[in-house]
Amino acid sequence: MLISSLAAHEPGLSPYAESKRAGEIRLAEASRDSDLSCAVLRPPAIYGPGDTELLPLFRLMARGIAPMPRGEGARASLLHVDDLARASARLLDCPAQGLYELHDGHDGGYGWEEIATIVGDVAGRRGGLRVRLPERVMRSVATMNLLAARTFGYLPMLSPGKVNELFHPDWVCDNTEMTRATGWQPEISLHDGLVALIGGRTLKTQEGRSNVT
To answer: Which fold does the domain 2-198 belong to in CATH?
Structure first.
């Protein structure tokens, strides 16, 4: 089994996306002439404890400042890391083969405004400042950041490839094939996942068990 990324669906957007697609191709080639079974998970953006990308953004939104990349109609699926772990375990325990997408049960993904509203609800904050991020400005910042990273030897969080991914309009997943093949279902909604991460309370799954300590 390979945990890839939904980014592999658009390998031309970034080196990261290209590397994920390349990994899928290598696994398929290796399994073609052997008894190796081939199953690939393509999760969307993952968040959870220890997250260094989405969690800082959620916490900023919780303080009332919501960065909003421009892009009408852009939507993306999300998934809590605990649900990804359960999906991985389920796939390892069954003979399913193929390519499977995952999301948190919110069909059609989320828009930026919807994400900001959910974070605000969890944080008990209504409204807040929406900071529009024009694509041209983001690309300029990403280019300068990449040059600085190469000069000073650090890994850039914002790069031209990341901007390509950020402004891509459709990062929506479909759980249908994964559920049909393994019976897996997501347990943690974005609202409940954020309660545990920025609300300071224990996360409850649909079965009433705590998954966060």
So the answer is: Rossmann fold (3.40.50)
